[in-house]
Structure formats: C-alpha cells, structure tokens
Amino acid sequence: MLYTLSLFLSGLISIYTLLCFVRIFLTWIPQAEYSSFGRFLAQICDPYLNIFRRLTFLRLGAVDFTPTVALLVLVGASSVITGVMQVGRITVSGILAMLLSLCWSVVTSILGFVIIVLVVRLIALFISQNYSSSFWDTLDRTITPLIFRIAGTFSRTTIPFKTAIIISIIALVLLTLGGNLVMNLLINIIRHIPI
Q1: CB 96 within 8 A of CB 186
Q2: According to the model, what pLDDT value does residue 89 have?
Q3: What span, in angstroms and rounded, lies between the C-alpha atoms of 77 and 20?
Q4: Closest-CA residue to 170 (of 109, 114, 105, 126)
Q5: Residues in the chain with pLDDT values less than 70
Q6: So what's the pLDDT on residue 10?
Q7: Rounded distance, CA 168 to CA 140, Å?
Q8: What residues contact 92, with CB distance under 8 A and at least 6 apart?
Q9: Using CA of residue 78, residue 57, residue 93, residue 108, what is the dihedral sign?
Q10: SS3 sequence, 128-195?
Q11: Residues in Cβ contact with 10 at an 8 Å cutoff, skipping those fewer than 6 apart
C-alpha cells in the first residue's frame, strides 16, 4: 500500500515538475505565454512558483534563480518519496539527509550558473577587447558587485575587471568542490544516525 501510494505521488510530482518547467520556458516566449495553453499552465503552476518569487535573495540583478529553486524543491520531494519507496520506511535522518542534499543541489546549481556566466564573460573579454553592447553592459552591471566582493576578500587593492572575474571563477570552483566534499561527508554521517 505504501509502495503504491509513494509511486503515485512520485509520478504526480514528476508530471507537475514537467508542467512547471514548460510554464517557465513559455515565459521566455511572450506569444506562447499568453496563448490559451500558456494561461492554462499559469493557473496550474503560478500558485506554486509565486511562493518562490517572494524570495528576493534568489535574484542577482536581472538573473532570477527562483524558478530553478522551485523545480529543485519538486525534484527533492520526488527524491524523498523515491527514497521512502526504496527503504520501505521513513526515518528522520533519511529526510534530513535528503533535505540537506536538496539544499546543496540548489546552491551548486546557482554556483554553476554563475561560474558559466563568468567564464562566458571572460572569454568574450579576451576575444574582443573593445566590444560593447547593451547585453554585455547589462551583464557587467549584474556581475560587477559580486565579482568585486569575491575578489575583495583576496585583495585589498583595486584590481582590474578581468582579474576580478578570474579570481571569482577560481574561488567559486574551489567553493563548489570543497562544498561537495563536505556535504557528501555530512550527508553520509546524517544517514547513519539511527533515528
């Protein structure tokens, strides 16, 4: 009975995750977003997605990570249910380990996205020294506070923009790798707690 219920809930969450993903994708295409299908998806998905839109700390300038976090929470819920199916019981330590894993997945997704954006910007700077456009100007305004805050922890002097990007990329990659090691160790310790 528990297995059947878990399987049903996991499938339902997977379908809802897919619908939310399509809804998020349609927001990038105005004609599709306001179509009858887009409005139908908005009625189904927006009440859930709006919960995360209130979390302003998940926005870095023009970049909004709230949809990513919303999808990861659904994936995490599905993982918890799948874990219950595999083990056959619910444990506090198992749920804590899965929640910690989910939180770290959200953090690594955000870190990975920021690293990719910084690498792309760095490559663009090396390829074209004097290239300027509204896209790059907007991106630079978005990333400048972050990269100089990160680089400022390692250097007290004023550093060039490219150098700040390089330092930020290295720091974020090391943070991600070190965090993965620590989180894997912590999650394994929590899973073995007999509660």
Answers
A1: no
A2: 65
A3: 14
A4: 114
A5: 1-3, 60-62, 83-90, 129-132
A6: 81
A7: 14
A8: 193, 195
A9: positive
A10: CCCCCCHHHHHHHHHHHHHHHHHHHCCCCCCCCHHHHHHHHHHHHHHHHHHHHHHHHHHHHHHHCCCC
A11: 78, 81, 82, 85
Residue 164, exposed/middle/buried by CB under 10 A (0-12, 13-18, 19+)? buried
What pLDDT was estimated at residue 130?
60
How high does pLDDT run on average in the chain?
A: 83
**Cβ-contact 105, 71 below 8 angstroms:** no
Amino acid at 49: L
First to last CA, the chain: 23
Q: How far is CA 107 from CA 8, 38, 51, 65, in A?
A: 29, 29, 18, 10
Amino acid at 53: R
Amino acid present at 68:
T
Q: Give the position of tokens 């409005």.
A: 39
**What is the pLDDT, as a whole number, of residue 66?**
86
Q: Are 115 and 169 in contact (CB under 8 A)?
A: yes
The predicted pLDDT at position 185 comes to 92
